[in-house]
Amino acid sequence: MNWIEKGWYGHHKQTYWLLPLTVLFFVIGVVRRALFKLGLLKVNHFELPVIVVGNITVGGTGKTPFVLHLVELLKRMGYSPAIVSRGYGASKSGPDFPRLVTRESSIEESGDEPKLLAMRSGCPVVIAPQRSEAVRYIIEKTSADIVIADDGLQHYAMDRDVEIVLLDAERLFGNGWLLPVGPMRESPSRLNNVDLVVKNQGNDAEGAYHLVPGDIYTVESSEPVVLEKGAKVHLVSGIGNPNRFEKTVADLNLDIKSTTWFPDHHAFTKEDFAQIKLKENEYLLMTEKDAVKCQSLANDKWLVLPISANISASLEAELVSIINKKCKKST
To answer: Residue 307, class by beta-carbon neighbours within 10 Å (0-12 exposed, 13-18 middle, 19+ buried)?
Structure first.
């Protein structure tokens, strides 16, 4: 955790000297939302229903597993979903935007989360800096009949039918301040206007939404690997909330020898792993989001711990009810 995250989620006030920037962020946000409401900034409307799955805080809420679960739920409901994303980390060189991401797309073309979504969802994934352009691409060039926007709660130029916000149950709003003094993209009052707020309970099996670890496999070849309890692992990650990853691994009764954290969406290089010396019967363990960027660097001692969403029957029923009420299926 770097100094600014310690300010957001700790008890010190190191970030408070950034208060003038927070005031500016607040003013820009208020003016921007007012311009959209007054019709002075264009809102793009679409023939297909759009579901936004987003945050009001910066990263680390378990959004990607939730999106993947939502894809499967929509398929069971008879929809053909597609996903749009800003494509953070995708190179501007290469195919033009909007850009269709497939399993074969390079990480430079796709960014980490869109590549993972394309690999696991089995549905079209389209990225563009302006998500509205990605939605239009889906309408014109795919057979999808509903769109999930991975993030984009604050992308008000994109009209939406349903807004779902994920919160980390442990971190919640941090110190409660807007960026950059705190982790908030918008004030907590924004939650009064969304369709559903989902709290990620981490690995708490009693929560309506929690994360479940899957079967470990190798980064290099996706071969399954069974680790005995007490197996020695070194954790490496560049995600929004690596502490949850560490807790998940600890709950598996693995022996964590070291942790190496990088910023969210970090572009890994060989040099990042130079200080990690794996002894006999030791492994390097990372998340799927990290692994999609590391296949060319990995050997057979580099492993992946996949994570899936577990959603209670009551929460899923609420989701179905909201979708049935607010998303009109195209004919």
So the answer is: buried
Residue whose C-alpha is closest to residue 130's, from 24, 41, 66, 194: 41
Q: Look at residues 190, 187, 178 and name the one whose alpha carbon lies nearest to residue 24.
A: 178
Q: What is the pLDDT of residues 84-131, one digit of tens each?
A: 999 988 888 778 999 999 999 999 999 999 999 999 999 999 999 999
8 Å CB contact between 140 and 32 = no
d(C-alpha 80, C-alpha 139), whole Å:
12
Report the C-alpha gap between 290 and 266 in whole angstroms: 8
Closest to 239 (Cα-Cα) out of 118, 129, 131, 113: 113
> Measured between alpha carbons, how far is 96 from 93 in angstroms, rounded to an integer?
8
Instruction: Judge if pTM exceeds 0.85.
Output: yes
Spans of all domains in the chain: 3-208+310-326, 215-305
Structure tokens at 150: 């991975």
Q: Is 275 exposed, middle or buried (0-12, 13-18, 19+ CB in 10 A)?
A: exposed
What is the β-pairing status of strands 162-168 and 282-286?
unpaired
For helices 63-76 and 313-326, what crossing angle results, to 10°? 70
The CATH architecture to which 3-208+310-326 belongs is 3-Layer(aba) Sandwich (3.40)
> Rounded to whole angstroms, how far apart are CA atoms 198 and 165?
6
